[in-house]
TrEMBL record:
Protein name: HTH araC/xylS-type domain-containing protein
Domain of life, source organism: Bacteria
Stored SMART domains: HTH_ARAC
InterPro entries assigned to the protein according to its UniProt record, in alphabetical order: Homeodomain-like_sf, HTH_AraC
This protein's record includes keyword Transcription regulation: yes
Length: 139
């Protein structure tokens, strides 16, 4: 082993700093650009396939460096996408269930739970504060 190369232990996996940098670069380039989070049901296995990174390395990286599991990680991208889109007048008129699905969530309830985890309030209350109007609640 080369003494100038340090090894970082992430869970049961030992990754070099260059491996960690590569994972970070690939994930943080791929996800915002390709927007795989818009696919409801997108999994860690899908991300590993699409990025050609080892599944267990991605999982360990997300757990260690983002302090969360994959579903929470991907849901944060979905919530961020919602933030980008909610300024559009068209989105203001949509039902909350439609907004959730277009943001990549399987349903409105999953969206509400993820949104509350990020913002501490439900999406309807948030929309009301920024837009002055809540989308229709029915799906």
């Amino acid at each position: 082993m080369n003494p100038s190369i340090s090894i970082v232990r992430i869970g049961p996996y030992h990754l070099t700093p260059s491996q960690i940098d590569r994972i970070a670069t690939v994930l943080h380039d791929f996800i915002p650009t390709r927007k795989p989070f818009l696919l409801a049901g997108y999994t860690l296995k899908d991300l590993a396939r699409d990025t050609q990174l080892p599944l267990h390395h991605i999982s360990a990286f997300i757990n260690q460096y983002h302090g969360m599991h994959f579903n929470e990680f991907i849901n944060r991208y979905r919530v961020a996408y919602f933030h980008e889109k909610i300024v559009n007048e068209e989105w203001k008129q949509k039902k909350l269930g439609a907004i959730a699905k277009e943001s990549g969530f399987k349903n409105r309830n999953t969206f509400t739970i993820a949104f509350k985890k990020v913002h501490g309030q439900n999406p309807s209350a948030y929309i009301k504060t920024i837009k002055g109007k809540v989308p229709r609640e029915s799906c």
